[in-house]
## 1
Amino acid sequence: MVILPGGDEPLYVAIYRQLRDQIQAGTLPAGARLPSRRALASQLGVSVNTVDGAYSQLQSEGFVESRPRSGYYVCVIDALQKLSLPGRRPETQPAQPDAVAVDFRPGGAAREKFPFSVWQRLLRSALEDPASLERTAPQGDPGLRRAVADYLYEARGVRCSVEQLILGAGTDSLLSMLSYLLPNRCTVAVENPVYNQAYRLFARMGHPVRPAEIDKQGVLVEPLEALDDVLLYTTPSHQYPLGLSMPMGRRVKLLNWAGSGRFRYIIEDDYDSEFRYDIRPLPSLQSADENGRVIYLGTFSRSVAPGLRVSYMVLPPELLRLYEAEYRRFSSQVSTVEQLALREFLVRGHFATHLNRMRVYCRAKRRRLVAALAPLEGQIRIIGEAAGHHLTVQAVNGMTERELCDAALTHGVRVYPISPYFMGPCPYDGKVLLGFGSLTDQQLEQGARALVRAWQR
Amino acid sequence: MVILPGGDEPLYVAIYRQLRDQIQAGTLPAGARLPSRRALASQLGVSVNTVDGAYSQLQSEGFVESRPRSGYYVCVIDALQKLSLPGRRPETQPAQPDAVAVDFRPGGAAREKFPFSVWQRLLRSALEDPASLERTAPQGDPGLRRAVADYLYEARGVRCSVEQLILGAGTDSLLSMLSYLLPNRCTVAVENPVYNQAYRLFARMGHPVRPAEIDKQGVLVEPLEALDDVLLYTTPSHQYPLGLSMPMGRRVKLLNWAGSGRFRYIIEDDYDSEFRYDIRPLPSLQSADENGRVIYLGTFSRSVAPGLRVSYMVLPPELLRLYEAEYRRFSSQVSTVEQLALREFLVRGHFATHLNRMRVYCRAKRRRLVAALAPLEGQIRIIGEAAGHHLTVQAVNGMTERELCDAALTHGVRVYPISPYFMGPCPYDGKVLLGFGSLTDQQLEQGARALVRAWQR
C-alpha cells in the first residue's frame, strides 16, 4: 500500500482518505484485513497515533470494522446505484425585459414615510440586549404581546388577554399554525373571492375547502347553516379584493351562526384596517363576539415594513387550549431582535404617529389617483370603501376584464384581473385592481393618463 | 332625541355614537326613520355636514340605510346571541417554584463564545441598507443562499445550486413547507426514536405517519422496501437523541432504497453536524446521493444563536419543481435584516472562526462532564458519538429510566428520559439524556457530583 503525502491536510486525514478511496474503488475488497496499526506506522514512518486517527475515522464512517484481538477489516458496502436524473439541475432564468412603465401591483405599501432612523435606533438599542440572541416564548415576547393587545383594543376594539395573542412570521405562517390546530375533518369555508393563498394552504394541509359566496354585504350566512366543524375565512373590514365592508346586520348574523353550531369558527383577517380614509372603520368582528368564535388576524408587514415578518393572531379560549396542548412546544418563528424593537416602536408611540402620517399620505395618494381617473367618468366606476392600498375598478363601458388588462398593457400599464381571486368561475366581468401603495405621485399620474387613453370608448 | 355633548371626541362621532346606542338598545327600532339631516342639524345647532358625517358612519356600518328621496331608516339587526362560555378567559399561571439546581435540558447551546460585538456591528450595518425593510425573495436573500451553499459544500459536501436552497424560520417551519409540498397520500416514516416535533407535525398535516425502526447503524432499510410514496425522516450524522452515526454501508443501502422506488425521499436533518469533537464527521448523506432523493436540512439556531430564526433546506430537482409550482408564491418568513447580517457573518469568515472556537469550547465542556462522571464507571456507560450538546447515558447498574430521573431529582438535578422520543413503547430501559450546551463549568461539575451521589449503587 502506498500512501502519498497529502498537501496541507493532516497526515492522518491523508492516510484515511487514501484507504477510503481504495475501499470504494474495490482495491481493498470487503473482508480484506488492514495492516496492523504498528506495521503501517512503521512502513510509513509515522506515529501509531496517526494511523490510529485514520483507522478510527474509517471505523466511525463504517468503511472498516474492528474485530477484537484480530484487527481492522473492510466492511461490505453495496455499490451505489445511479439513476438518470429527470433533467439538469435548475439554474436561474434570466429575467425577461419588462416594457411596463407603471405597474399597479396590489399589495405594495408606501415606504417613504417610514421613520427609518427611529426604527434603526430602536433596533440598535434592542441589539444591546443580550436577550436578543435568545429565543422568545413560543407565543412571542410578552412585552410585545401586551403592546399589541393594547393597540388592538384601542384601535379595533379587540378584547383579549396577552395569553390569547400569538405572534407569527407572517399571515401564511399563522394560517399554517391554525391548520395544524384544527382537526383534519374540519372544513374550511373561504370567502369567494379571497386572498388565494388562504385556500391553497388549507387545501394542501388536508382540509376540505369550499367557497363561501358573498353579496354586497359580505358572506352569505344561509348556505353555511348546514355546516358544522367548520372554519370560515373572511375579511369583514375590507373584503379582499373587492373592498367592501360588512355591515353590522350581517356581522351579527354571522356571529350568531358561529355561536349556534358545533365547532364553528370565523377567521377575521383584518389585514389593512389601519388604512381607512373617510370614516372610522367599524370595530372588529371579534369585539362583538360574545361566544369565543372569532380568531382575529393581523400583520405589521403593511403598517410597518414588508421585511419585518411579524403578524399576530388572537385565539378564542377553546382554540387556545388546543394550542397549549398541541402547539406550544414549537419554537417561535419570529426574530427576537425585531420583536424587541417593535415592542419599543409601539410602547413609545412611534407606531401611532407613523400610522397617522401614513393614513394622511395614502389618502392623498388615493385621491390623486381617483382625480386623475376622473376623465373616465361614465366609462368606469370605483367600487368599495375609501381604504387600503388598492382601488377596485368596474368598467361600465362594456369592456371585459381581459380587455381592460390588455388595453392597459398596450399603453405600458399593468392592472390586475380580479378573476384569479375566485375559486371556480368569476361571476362577473369587467373588474380590475389598481394597487397604488408603492407608486410615486408621478407614477400614479402617468399611469392614470395612460389608462384614460386605454379605456376611453 | 337628545344628543349629549361628547367630551373630547368630534361632534359627529358623539352624534353617531348616541344614535348607534339607541339603535342597539331598541329605542330606535328597525324601520324607524331618522330625522332629516337638516332638521337634526337645526335641532342640535350644528352644521348639516356634521350630521352628514354621523349618518355616513351609521350607514357604512350597516345600522341605517339610505332610501333615495326619502331619508335614512334603521336596519333590521338580529339580537346577538350569547352562549355561556366554557370557562373563563385564561390568564397566566404563576410559575412553580423550582427546586432544581442544575438542569441538564437538551437543546441548549453555549452562548459565552458568541462574537456579540461582531454580530451587532453587522446587524447595524445591515440596518443602514434600506433593503432591510423590504421582503426578500420567497426562498431568501440570494447572497445569503450563495454563502450557505458554499459553506455546506465545504463543510458537509452538500452539492446544490443556489436555486435549490430555501431559507425558513426554523426547522419546524421548513418541515411544514415540505408537508405542504408532498401529496397528502404520501406516508412519512420517522426514525424511532426521533425529534418528536417532526412526527406530530406531519401527522397533524394529514400524512400517514409510521415509525422506522433503527439498530446501532441507524434506520433499518428492509422494512421500508414495501413502501412507495414515502418520505423518511432521519438524522444520519448524529441520531437524535441516541447520538449514533450511520456508517457508510447503511447510507448506501438507504440511498439505493430511495433511488429504486416510486417517490421515495429522505429528509437528512443535519441539525448539529457542526459539533463533532473527535474525528471529522462523515460528509452528508446528500453528498453521496446520485439520484436526487435527499432533502438536506440544517439550522443556524444552534451554531449562531437561538434567537436567530434562520434554517435552510436543499430540495432535490423534482421537489424543487413542486416548490416552484406550489409554494413560491408564499412570502419568505425570515427577517430581512437578519438575513443580510448573517450573509456578511458567513461571507467575511466570522462564522467559520466562531464554529472553530465553539467546537473547542464544547469539546472541553463535554470532556469536563465525562471526567466528572468518571466515578460512576461500572454504573453507567456513555453511548453515541463525541458530538453535539448532550450525552446519552446508559445505566449498567440496573437502574430504570424512571429511577435515574427520580434519583437525580432528589439530588436537585434534572436529567431527561429517552422514552418520550419514541413512537410507541420504548424498547429498552435505563437511558437518559444530559444536555450540557448551556451550562457553565461550575454547573456541570456541581450537577455531575450530584449524579455521582444519586446513581451510586
Note: Chain A touches chain B through 105 residues (CB under 8 Å).
## 2
Amino acid sequence: MAGEFIDSLILKNDKKIVFLVMDGLGGLPLPGGDQTELEAASTPHMDALAKKSICGLLDPVGDGITPGSGPAHFALFGYDPVKTKVGRGLLSATGVDFPMTPRDVFMRVNFATIDKGGVLVDRRAGRIPTEETERLCRKLQERVRLASAATANVEIFFRPEKDYRAVIALRGDDLGEEVEETDPQQTGLPPRPPLALAPAATRTSAILTELLAQVKEILSDEPKANMILMRGYAKYQQFPSMVDRFGLNPLAIANYPMYRGIARLVGMQVNPLTHTLAEEIGALEENFPRYDFFFLHVKHTDSNGEDGNFAGKVKVIEEVDTLLPRITALNPDVLVVTGDHSTPATLKSHSWHPVPALLAAPTCRPDRVEQFGERACLQGGLGRMPMANLMALALAHAQKLEKFGA
Amino acid sequence: MAGEFIDSLILKNDKKIVFLVMDGLGGLPLPGGDQTELEAASTPHMDALAKKSICGLLDPVGDGITPGSGPAHFALFGYDPVKTKVGRGLLSATGVDFPMTPRDVFMRVNFATIDKGGVLVDRRAGRIPTEETERLCRKLQERVRLASAATANVEIFFRPEKDYRAVIALRGDDLGEEVEETDPQQTGLPPRPPLALAPAATRTSAILTELLAQVKEILSDEPKANMILMRGYAKYQQFPSMVDRFGLNPLAIANYPMYRGIARLVGMQVNPLTHTLAEEIGALEENFPRYDFFFLHVKHTDSNGEDGNFAGKVKVIEEVDTLLPRITALNPDVLVVTGDHSTPATLKSHSWHPVPALLAAPTCRPDRVEQFGERACLQGGLGRMPMANLMALALAHAQKLEKFGA
C-alpha cells in the first residue's frame, strides 16, 4: 500500500497533518535496566496524547533491517524505502541548497591528507572544521580550470557541507554516475583513480581525472587538507512529489542538511534554519495557516543515541514533551509522534528495532495504550506496521483518501 | 498468500466452513463514548465463541484504505482485492441474475429527468421506486428496436435493479467497454454523448448513440423518468472460481444484489431470496448437508451504520447474537464471524478501520480474548492481518490445505 496505489485515491481538503519526528526515537534499556529511553523519560503530555490515540510500532524497512536516515525518512513520507533509491551525492546537494539542473552529476567529497608519496594518511584531514572547508571550496572554485578537449562545456561547483565534507557538482552533457569511488576506505593506500564502471561514465571519468590532478596541485600547500576523496556519485533525479502524489502543501521544519535535502526531494517547502526546538515549534505556529502538512524534525534524540548518552536522549525527549502542548494547541486534525528509526544509546548507532508511534485524530478507535513507550505500543491499535504505510493512515484520518471500489 | 499460492495446496474433504459476515461490522465509539457498536452490544454467544476462537483484526485492502463492498468481499473470499477488478456494470448484471455470455457488455443505468431543453434536472428521476423502474424497463424492452446497419445482430436487455437503477446488457460481436459515461455527475448540464474512448469501442458507441435517441423518444411521455444515464461499462469477465481454486462447493445466502453478484462471480451457488435474518439461517440449516462453504450475509449492520444509527447497528448485532446458537448447533468445522469492512455510525460511511474477526475451530490455539470486540481482538491470536489471507486460515483449520514442501 505504500506504492502508488493510494495516490489514485487522493481527496484534497483543508485538514492539517503534523508529523513530529524525533530522530532515532526507539531505544533499549541500559544493561541491567528495564526501561528504554522513551519509557524512562517523564512524558506526561505524550502519555495523555497516547490515551486518546492509536499507537503501534513501525518497521522502517523490514524485520532486522537497520535503516539509514534516507530510507527511514522516505518511509515516513510514504515512499517505498527499498525502491526509492537516491545517491548520496544528490542527497548532499539538496541538503546544501544547490540549485540543481537535469544535466548535473553530484558527488560527496571528504577533504583528506596524503603524504609526499601520495599515500592516504587521514581520510578526514584531521576533521577540519566547517569554516576551513568553506575556505577550501572557495579556493578550489576560484582556481580549478577545466580546459582540455575532454572537459569542454563542463561546469564545476564546489560546495561545503558540515565539518570536512563537501559536495562537487559537474554540469554538462553525456555525464554518468557509474564511476569508481576514489576513497580506498583505509589509510596506507593511495586514493583510487576515478575509473569508469560503465560506458556511460567514460566522459565523467576523464573529467574527474583531470579535475583531481588540478585539485592535488592547488591543495599542495595545505597543511592538512591536501587532497579530496570522492564517492556517492549520483545524477540528478526527479522524484514524484508529495504535492503531486498526495495533494499536500507540505512544509519541512528541520535544521540538518540531509533532512532538509530529503524534504526537498519529495517536494516540501523547507523552512529557513532555526536554532532551538522552541524556535522550530515557533516556525510551526507561524506557518500553520499556510500549509497542510508539517514535518518537524528533532535531531538530538539521535545524536545523543549515537553518542551513547542515555540520559541525554531522555532529556531531549522530555524537552519535546514540555513543548508538545504548543503543538496540540494548534489543534491539527492529525498529529503523529514518532521517530524515523531506533538509535539505542547502548548500541551507539541506528538499529533495526521498530519505532514507537502514536497517531492522534478524532477518528481514532480506542486501544488500551495508556502511555507512550515501546512496550505500551505493543498493545496499540496500529499493531506493528510498515513505516511506509503510516502516511496512508494519516491521510485517511484527515479524510484525504476516497473509497476504493464500489 | 492471497494469490494463487494456496490453490496448489488444496485437499478436498467433507469439512464445512461457515462465514457469517455482518456487513460494515467494525465501528467507532460515539463522540465522548468509549465503546464501538460491537463493544456496546450485548453478545453473550459471540463472547462465548470468542473464548474458544482465535480473534484478530482484518485489513480489507490496506492501512488507511476504505474499501467498497466489492473489494472487501473479494478479500473475504480469498481474492486479492486490488488485483481483482470488476466493472460496476458486470457486478450489477450478476446481482440481477442476468444469464451472461462472453459476447455481453453491461452498463449501469440511472433513470433521470431532463427538461425541455435536454438539460439534466434530476440525476435520479425523483428517486422513483423499484416498481416504476420495473415498468420502465419492460416498456423499453418492448419498444426499443435497433435497426440500422451499425446495430445489426445486436441484442439489448433492460433489467431493473433497486430504486431508480437498472442494468443494460448489449450482446453482439466487436463490442467494447471503453465508452464515455453519459452521466455528467451534476444537474444543469445535458447528458454527455457515449463517445468511444478507444477504437475497440467504436461500434458500441454507435449502438449506444442510436439507443439513447430511441430511449429519449420512448420516455418522452414520462413525467419523471424521461431519460437514462449510463456508466460503469464492463465486458463479461470470467473469474477463477472458488470451486476451481479451493475445491469448495460454496453457497451464498445473501439478499442484496451486489453480494449475490459477487458470490456468483467467484462461482458460488446463490440461495433464493429470503426476507429475514431468521430465514437466512433457516436456509443455512436446510442446505447444510449439500454444500461445504457457506457465505451468510447480514446487511443491516452496514445500513444502520450508513444512516448514523449507532443504536440500530447495536440492535442488529444483538439480533445476530441471539440467532448464533442455531449456527453453532450445526457444528460447522470452521465458523468465521466477521465483517467485510467497518461502517462506524459516527462516520455514516465505510471506513478504513480494521474489522474484528473470530475463527472458531477445534484446531484453534488459545489466545486471551474473552469477548468479541475491536479492542479485545487486538490481543487475539490472528493479530492484524490482511483480510484476503483469512480464507487460507479457514481452509487450513478445515484441513483442506496440504503441507508445502518436503
Note: The mean pLDDT of chain A is 95.
